[in-house]
Amino acid sequence: MPRKEVQRSGIGRMLISSRSFDEYVAMFDLRDEDLASSVLDCPAGASSFTATARARGFAVTACDIAYADVPDLLDVVRDETIRGNAYIARQPDRYAGGFFRDAEHHLEHRLDSVDRFAADLLAHPESYVHGALPRLPFRDRDFGLVLSSHLLFTYADRLDLDDHDRYLTELIRVSSQEVRVFPLVPTGDGRRYTGLDTLRRRLDDRGIRHELRPVTYDFQGGGTEMLVCMR
After folding, report:
1. CB-based contacts of 89, cutoff 8 Å, min separation 6
2. By CB neighbour count within 10 A (0-12 exposed, 13-18 middle, 19+ buried), where does 57 fall?
3. Which of 1, 37, 165, 172 has its CA 20 to 30 A from that of 61?
């Protein structure tokens, strides 16, 4: 979650993304029963997942380093969405899945998510907690389900294996049931993160049950699996 200065991938600095509830459902293979317990979204960025979940009667806490300065975040989040859209528009061969019709649909969808996020952040600031991996401001097993999107493995050019291990260990600490991590491919790459097998062996050594599960989200090439760790 820390946004390090090293910037090697084509996306540039780590993106503050605005994904929707529908994207989360597809990315994490979510069903109503999965959301029945308390849920943590970390890092949540400017996702509207928490806002829409609340409207549907579910309790979700969003956590991100970006919540340290809400006025600044709200100033930049639309520009961040446009920046992310421009990146995928430059690489239609790598982002050609069926979830979005085209780059214009992607931008429209994400900007709608920005508006939902901003309104909910201002109306319910208690649901948006400032925090940064690998030390989150929550107790052990505070949440039933923990979701983590587009940080681990996504930024393999600036987070190393030990970073991924520390971050995942912390996400497991605050979960009482499951941690789901998506995707398993770095930005702009259709292949699994090269350190994933080593990371899974470390989980085995610590007695943490885990598995890879297919998901229905179809956007980035190769991004069709999530890692699930079970308590």
Report:
1. 103
2. exposed
3. 165
**Secondary-structure percent of the chain, ordered helix, strand, coil, rounded to 5:** 40, 15, 45
Any idea what the Cα angle at residue 32 is, between residues 30 and 36, rounded to 5°? 110
Q: What is the pLDDT of residues 68-85, one digit of tens each?
A: 999 999 999 999 999 999
In 3D space, the residue among 58, 56, 81, 71 whose CA is nearest the CA of residue 125 turns out to be 71
- Cβ–Cβ < 8 Å for 227, 172: no
Burial class (CB in 10 A: 0-12, 13-18, 19+), 204: exposed
From CA 44, how far away is CA 90, in angstroms rounded?
Answer: 25
Predicted model pTM:
0.95
* pLDDT tens, residue by residue, 154-202: 999 999 999 999 999 999 999 999 999 999 999 989 999 999 999 999 9
